[in-house]
Write a structure and sequence with these properties.
One of its GO terms (biological process) is xenobiotic detoxification by transmembrane export across the plasma membrane. The chain is mostly helical and 491 residues long. Helix 9 packs parallel to helix 11 and helix 10 runs antiparallel to helix 11.
Length: 491
């Protein structure tokens, strides 16, 4: 016992599990070849799990709270009637998720660059990256908002009834301000995550959810504004989150070095930012398509709702993975980057196994949380094995996508995702669903086949990576962006 207590390797671990101290200590522990392998592994695991927990736990909470706002809006709309519930669901699933996925994906470009710059201690560049990302996303929001404006004819073109299209369009009109809130919120969120500042966003989201519920009750029921009131309240709530986070950046001592105010340097290198953002957008959009088969069946709706909820846990680990890998690459720690990948993938996979086990254990009753009827319950129970497989795959694939963001591989992973979805997932789903008459189970099995292939390719690509070369690429990328900054400054 005394020898373990006096072990200098384990003694240093306890005080080095945050910030750059944890990163430096992790690399030192992994490089200490004189220490026995198991002791090194134990010490490194303690450091990495602590770093990961402090990032992933608040991030998971933020994403769950954000989805809770949208779900509560649909609940309030549903209390107005079945038509209103259907319209709100159509507006959310058919149009809002497109904007959310596109802008969230483009926002991950700032996650790559901020994470690597923070690891390299180039703190002033984080604020520049934040502003560049916000500019690109705000410009992108203009054509997206036009889709919202013309949502009624678009929905009619897609075969919706005139009454449904009118109600859904009314709901969507109130979401137009939300698009521009997304454009600012996602870069701010990634800017903070890159510095391991996650808890404040969670606190702000908790407070905003409370305000959102109160305001929704007032606007929908007391003021009688109906669907438009519900969606306008949702837009306002997202702007509250944006303002709250930006006020934190301005007032927090933790952001003094990374936010130095607005400047014209943010307008430099925008085209490179657009290219990196575009790769990110395709990555997230295709991942979103893989997760939602868009079939109007009660049983599938229950399963996809459960899947969407537990998927937020994986999204939290996605954010944590990108931050950890980006920080370590920026700091020039190849061993720590590789160990971070191994740790976050393993932890997320084990959590997914637990989630899948729970789903299978309650497969016969899980539908009653959403709707009644033994027929639906039996159908859901029949689909739950596919749901469990999807949950397990989602415990790996989003994390590897987060690793890709941390490394700046968005374009490559986008090609992988597009190929697996269009070349494997869709054709296999149609073949099983229609040719072999397996119906919903066949289509979902095809999606699983595409996701499975995608996961295997990402695993192969990630674990054959030369992390020393990734450090060199990161240095070149940061030097390039630094040169852009200096050129503009001289001008």
């Amino acid at each position: 016992m005394d020898s373990q207590t006096n072990d200098p390797l384990l003694e240093t671990v306890e005080g080095s599990t945050t910030g750059h101290g944890g990163s430096v200590e992790l690399e030192r522990v992994l490089s200490d070849t004189e220490t026995p392998l198991m002791r090194r592994f134990t010490a490194a695991s303690i450091i990495e799990v602590n770093l990961l927990y402090k990032l992933a736990a608040p991030a998971v909470m933020v994403y769950l709270l954000n989805i809770a706002m949208s779900m509560s809006t649909r609940i309030f709309s549903g209390q107005l009637g079945n038509m209103e519930l259907a319209a709100a669901s159509l507006g959310n699933q058919g149009i809002q998720l497109f904007a959310y996925g596109l802008l969230l994906g483009m926002g991950s470009a700032v996650e790559t660059l901020c994470g690597q710059a923070f690891g390299a201690s180039k703190f002033d560049m984080l604020g520049v990256y934040l502003q560049r990302s916000a500019i690109v996303l705000l410009v992108t929001s203009i054509p997206i908002s036009m889709i919202y404006v013309f949502s009624k004819p678009i929905l009619l073109l897609l075969g919706q009834s005139p009454s449904m299209a009118s109600d859904a369009a009314l709901f969507v009109y109130g979401l137009i301000p939300q698009v521009f809130a997304y454009a600012i919120n996602f870069p701010i969120q990634k800017f903070l995550q890159a510095q391991s500042i996650v808890a404040p966003s969670a606190y702000i989201s908790v407070g905003t959810l409370v305000v959102h519920l109160i305001l929704s009750w007032v606007t929908v029921y007391k003021l009688g504004l109906g669907l438009l009131g519900a969606s306008l309240t949702l837009s306002l709530s997202w702007w509250i989150i944006v303002v709250g986070q930006f006020v934190y950046i301005l007032r927090s001592d933790r952001c003094k070095e990374t936010w130095t105010g607005f400047n014209t340097k943010a307008f430099g290198g925008l085209w490179d930012f657009v290219k990196l953002s575009s790769g990110s957008a395709v990555l997230v959009l295709i991942a979103g398509l893989l997760e939602n088969p868009q079939l109007s069946l009660d049983a599938l709706s229950v399963c996809t709702s459960v899947n969407a909820l537990v998927f937020m846990v994986s999204v939290g680990f996605n954010a944590a993975a990108s931050v950890r890998v980006g920080n370590e690459l920026g700091a020039g720690n190849p061993k720590a980057a590789a160990f971070s990948v191994l740790t976050v993938t393993t932890v997320s996979f084990l959590i997914a196994l637990v989630e899948a086990t729970i789903v299978l254990s309650v497969r016969d009753v899980i539908s009653y949380a959403f709707t009644g009827g033994e027929t639906v319950a039996n159908a859901v129970s029949d689909l739950c094995p596919l749901l469990a497989i999807t949950i397990v795959l989602n415990g790996i694939q989003p994390v590897l996508s987060g690793v890709a963001v941390g490394c700046g591989w968005q374009a490559y992973v986008a090609y992988v995702n597009v190929g697996c979805y269009y070349i494997v997932g869709i054709p296999l789903g149609f073949l099983l669903g229609f040719h072999f008459n397996f119906g919903v189970k066949g289509i979902w099995s095809g999606m699983i086949g595409g996701t499975g292939m995608q996961t295997l390719i990402l695993l192969w690509s990630t674990f054959r990576t030369d992390w020393n070369k990734e450090v060199e690429k990161t240095n070149k990328r940061l030097n390039k962006w630094e040169a852009n900054k200096e050129t503009l400054f001289k001008e």
